[in-house]
Amino acid sequence: MVSGIRTSEPAGGSTPRRALEDRQGTGTRPDKGSDAGRQTGSPGGQGGGSPREGFKQDPSANETEIDPRAQAIIRRLPVREENTGKTRGLWFGRDGSESPLVSGYDRYQEMADRYADERLGLGPLAKATHVEIKFAMFMRERGLRDETIYLNNDPCKGPASCRRWLGSFLPPGAKLTIHWPDGGPETFDGKS
């Protein structure tokens, strides 16, 4: 695992380690329903299957409607209050395994800085440390085309924001849907 993004499967075919086990008393969101604390997407079948089952995006769907299943997943993440601390999130692979995501400096941030400099003519960006931009680089590296992530913070706004630049970092034609506390989904499309 590299900076919260799974880069290989566990050795010996073992079950992947759960990223957020035993989170009691650590600042996670309180249970707001019977499904809120469930370990969804477990390869062992706990939690009723992969979160991907029910998150198929209808292109005509109103993206301003908040998805209660997504919010149940987000409630498992640490609360990020008053714009402090790292943004954390979850991504579920095609096999239902979950991988933690975290903002900060790592090889995906370095890839984003190189991409911003070489392909976009921007030079290094502070936004390259943001989960959304780093995940876009992960999608490029893996050839992923349509993914969904769940974050404890909404995508930043403004002229030099993730909302402004994410489409430029995504692979052309790819889609990244983001859910966050009491918001989303918002789908970003990769530009050519």
UniProtKB/TrEMBL annotation:
Q: Which domain of life is it from?
A: Bacteria
> Per the record, where are the segments of Gly residues compositional bias?
42-51
| Cited InterPro entries | SCP1.201-like (IPR032724)
Biased-composition ranges, Basic and acidic residues, are: 18-35
Renumbered residue ranges of the record's region Disordered: 1-71
Pfam families given in the database record: DddA-like (PF14428)
- What protein name is recorded for this chain? Nucleic acid/nucleotide deaminase of polymorphic system toxin
Q: Which organism is it from?
A: Kribbella pittospori
Task: Give the taxonomic lineage as stored in the record.
Answer: Bacteria, Bacillati, Actinomycetota, Actinomycetes, Propionibacteriales
